[in-house]
Amino acid sequence: MPPRVACSPVSASRPHRVAVLVLEGAKPLDVGIPAQVFTTRASMPYEVRVCGAAPGLVTGGDGLSYHVAHGLDALGWADIVFIPGYRHPDRDDPPTAVTDALIAAHAGGARLAAISTGAFALAATGLLDGKRATTHWHYTRALAAKHPLVKVDENVLFVDEGSVLTSAGAASGIDLCLHILRGDLGVAASNHAARRLVAAPYRSGGQAQYVPRSVPEQLGERFAGTREWALHRLGEPLSLQLLARHAAVAPRTFSRRFVEDTGYTPMQWVMRARIDVARELLERSGRSVEQIAGDVGLGTGANLRLHFQRILGTTPSEYRRTFASGE
Questions:
Q1: Which domains does the chain have, with CATH numbers?
Q2: What is the sign, positive or negative, of the torsion defined by CA atoms of 23, 26, 32, 34?
């Protein structure tokens, strides 16, 4: 399970500072994802700087190069540093100046977030020792071999260890960025960014990186259709039997495949979907906790408070004070 969401919104006094560290052999999608997700605009209180070991030209992977305006000083400036994936991470460590700058940025309070094989550069700092981490499935064994103190998990999309975060292949970098947005700005802002990117609003970090080949694609599509169907009926009673009936499979098969697809049991997924809707209503409406509990199918305010505390580690009232629009 991913960790609880910390209610720590971006300060209104200044934009949140994001540095994207471009290393030799950097992958184009991995560089572009955080730069685009956190792009400076009215709805996104962030400032992004793309940097390298030194200002100037950085030779990238896949036939592309990058001209970066900033050097490693951008890491000390940043509140969060993204380390995009790069080619051949298992062969060479990043320059000592890079690892030293990452360690110093982390010591200064910055979060460090690796996308795909960027996890190797993050692991080279020692900051992942004793912690869970992931990377692209093709490189998980190499990461474990090169950095045996890191608890490598190959079956997740991303891992949030608080001040250090890692994600799998390029597309899961979007999931990681949206996860960070949810913690910084709330569900409504994250969903807005997902719509702008034409991306899934939220895939849990516990979701598997890839579906086993033995599973027919048609069944995967059917399960996705059932999840979409359920999202439009969260205010109604939903049970494992009802969901399995909609997918036209046995409850046992549905439950097993659902965990493989999402990282959650069907009813855990339904509960988290209900809490997500409750979060957005707390952010954007003036409805009471009791009313919202009824809206999302949890019945009573006490029930909503119980599950809100269990999943997010906070109360609905505290969440509203932190993220409500206009406050």
A1: 16-197 (3.40.50.880), 213-327 (1.10.10.60)
A2: negative
Between CA 308 and CA 323, with CA 296 as vertex, the angle to 5 degrees is 50
Q: Beta strand pairing status for 46-51 and 16-21?
A: parallel
Per-residue pLDDT tens digits for 183-229:
888 888 888 887 777 676 655 544 444 433 333 344 556 788 899 89
Q: What is the DSSP letter of 3?
A: P
What the block records as the tokens of 105 is 């940025």
**Rounded to an integer, what distance in angstroms lies between the CA atom of residue 86 and that of residue 297?**
45
Its pTM stands at 0.71
Find where tokens 């890079």 sit: 98
| CB 17, CB 30: distance < 8 Å | no
Residue entry with tokens 């001209």: 67
Which of 139, 126, 135, 141 shows the shortest CA–CA distance to 94? 126
Enumerate residues 6+ apart whose C-beta is below 8 A from 296: 234, 235, 274, 275, 277, 278, 281, 304
Q: Which residue in the block uniquely carries the two structure tokens 């027919």?
A: 216
Helix (H, G, I), strand (E, B) or coil at 275: helix
pLDDT, residue 200, reads 63
**Lowest-confidence segment of 42-51, 244-253, 303-312 by average pLDDT:** 42-51
Q: What is the CA radius of gyration of the chain?
A: 20
Q: What integer pLDDT is reported at residue 313 of this predicted model?
A: 85
Q: What is the pLDDT of residues 272-299, one digit of tens each?
A: 999 989 998 998 899 999 999 999 999 9
Count of CB atoms situated within 10 Å of the CB of 127:
20
3-state secondary structure of 48: strand
